[in-house]
Amino acid sequence: MSDQSELEKLLQNNRDWAARIKQEDPGFFKRLSQQQSPRYLWIGCSDSRVPANQILGLDPGEVFVHRNIANVMSHGDLNALSVIQFAVDILKVEHILLVGHYGCGGVHAAMTGLRVGLADNWLRHVADVALKHQTLLDQVDTESLRHARLCELNVIEQVFNVCQTTVVQDAWARGQPLAIHGWVYSLFDGRVRELGMDVAAQDELQPSYQRALAGVPPKGKRDE
Question: Which family does it belong to (predicted)?
Fold first, then answer.
């Protein structure tokens, strides 16, 4: 299929989707165009297999989304910080969902030292997580399970980072309702696993962090 044919197919897909939505809900696009008032900010991986709205079962306009390779929250990333600030201060979201996924290629590259190019510098954040928790990871028998454990540990650490941003700290200080949650999505069954990393106030951060780390199983799958 030529590039032009592929683009034409995408455009036709868009027309079909718009027509179907309009038939199912004639007022949908009018409502959508007037405002967005999401309750959730999703910070997830750029992986094309992890679409936020579909996983949550939400329509356009119901979730604000930021994605990057391996769902990293770096304090030097002005893009991510700007998204969080807009979501918290302007949109007044009530929940920030930091969502990783099992089978993450970025996490695997960081774990194994696989060079992928410029992104190696970004994935250094995940490699640092692996170094921080090397003792736990060394207890895991197989590479596939070690990969899964690092996906979980990376989410826990990135939630901690989100909670440490000035935006979140200021929101809590002024009493704004805001909770941050750490989840991992499974490509194998479409289900989200909660990691026990749920923080709604500054004094909850350390206890939640310690509980979440204690809940990372060195043996077996999380559901077992």
Answer: Belongs to the beta-class carbonic anhydrase family.
- Say whether pTM exceeds 0.90: yes
- The yes-or-no answer on residue 151 being catalytic is no
Contact predicate 168/204, CB 8 Å: no
The continuous run of DSSP H or E covering 193 comes out as strand 192-199
Residues in the chain with pLDDT values less than 70:
1, 222-224
CB atoms within 10 A of CB 143: 11
Altogether, the residues listed in the chain come to a count of 224
At 104 the pLDDT is: 97
Residue 49 is among the residues annotated as catalytic for this protein? yes
Tell me the pLDDT tens digit for each residue of 142-194: 999 999 999 999 999 999 999 999 999 999 999 999 999 999 999 999 999 99
* Ranges assigned E (strand) in the chain: 40-45, 63-68, 95-101, 179-185, 192-199
Q: From the candidates 15, 20, 31, 45, which is the catalytic residue?
A: 45
DSSP state of 191: -
Active-site residue, 47 included:
yes
